[in-house]
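User: For a benchmark we're assembling, each entry needs the component sequences followed by a predicted structure for the full assembly. Here are entry 17's components. Please fill in the structure.
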Amino acid sequence: MSESSTVFPDLPHWEGDGTHRIPFLAYTSEDIYKRELERLFYKGHWCYVGLEAEVPNPGDFIRTAIGERSVIMARDTSGDIHVVENVCAHRGMRFCRERHGNRKEFVCPYHQWTYTLGGDLQGLPFRRGLKQDGKVLGGMPPDFNTAEHGLTKLKVARRGGVVFASFDAQVEAFESYLGPTILHYFDRMFSGRKLRVLGYNRQRIPGNWKLMQENIKDPYHPGLLHTWFVTFGLWRADNKSQLKMDEHRRHAAMISTRGNQGRSAEQVTQVSSFKESMQLHDPSFLDVVPEPWWNGPTVVMTTIFPSVILQQQINSISTRQIQPRGHGAFDFVWTHFGFEDDDEAMTQRRLRQANLFGPAGFVSADDGEVIEFSQQSFESKPFHRSLAEMGGKGTEDTEHMVSETLIRGMYRYWRSVMEDRK
Amino acid sequence: MSAVISADDWVELNRLYAAYASAVDGGDWDAWPEFFTDEGIYRLQPRENFERGLPLATLSFKGKGMLKDRVYGIKETLFHDPYYQRHVTGAPLVHSADAGKIESEANYAVFRTKLSEPTMVFNVGRYIDIVARTPAGLRFASRSCIYDSELIPNSIIYPI
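Assistant: Structure for entry 17:
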């Protein structure tokens, strides 16, 4: 390739026709990052907020984030779920400091402006001034209307016990946002069966947020980077697999079924991370019990653009939320859960298999590491580009996993939104 | 709440804590499972899960077999940036002691130093321990590392 003339270009250059060569600048430019927040996180898209099981009772709330904006999800006395922005209408204070709790109302401590759980301004001290010596001192102007000064209320979508929200009142319906293909895999995991939250893991990964979407749209790496997956057949190039996308190619599902190919299968002999002699001292890490709702696949990893990944890896299930923190970092929040009607053995199994995942997991800790080291190169060499040409240059669904089609598909969509001159 | 223990127990308990820190800071991974009883429990859990009664741990192992599998993972399967770690463990607070075991806790701070990088505070929390008296000396029947540093700086590879 011919390198462009400057080390620090202003605009990303897409080589060739399509999205199979991704400019490093897409991960390092502050301008691009701000446009992503605006066009992907704050407009036209649904973002993950949490699980209904996190706010089971009236008054329960959790504080989380969409993009870089702090939001609160709360359940009111009628059972409705609201998502409001954590910015007081008065002086803009990020008033909610607890990460979870139970409240009858929200009060900003600065001047005690008080809001309902749905974000309506209920009242404020000295609105009508202070009566003293027969005079009224101060107070808000007569035309001050509390109805115009509530918290920013987000549009909310609930499905199968999961809550998404959008700052954009015009956003399309959640179901059409996912599209029928991805909705199928969403409903497979969230059929309405009551969820039980098992706990959280949080990590800050020093890499651009898109790298995590790409990581879970890349079925090429798990059988290579993650020795555990290969050796125990959980994720292997020769497993029966499918890569599926919605019509916009923004969301995807990687679907795979654990095979019985055996350890010396020909397909893995070219894989240096395959460890023939590896034996677990304690095989209960992999005490897999198939569940009826799987309908076959042992792994379905669903990327919902831009904010969340839905994990079913054998019996371990979680949501993994992406909260960007500048162009070069994001917080990754794992919410592990099970079902309310799981027996104790299944709960213990899910918890045991959780050792494979998360910031210290046998197979997930190294994903954060490789993302960090990619970002290091992007920062130092922003005129360059990465390659995503495994399986060709197109963006079609495939019936195997030796392909980077999902990454190309995501960038096809990304370019259509980011380069739109509106 | 604290309990009075004999001077000998106090010395042995401190020796155990110091030897544990020395092993995990020195990269002597094979020595790590040997600080536990055969059925010993090791948990690394964020404080929020611990205090809310949520069972998920970042790592949760029961028995030396699982600990040995983690050692194998550190040495052979987990790709990671190499780093040094350094534990500073506070004085143990003993909650109870009897003929079979000592229940104690201690604050800890772990610093991480990556090659050619400045040292940073990596993981801060407290150990909550059940220490068994065995013929071979004191061993952890259970060691829970309950960490305040809930936002993990990318990843945790080595034992805390």
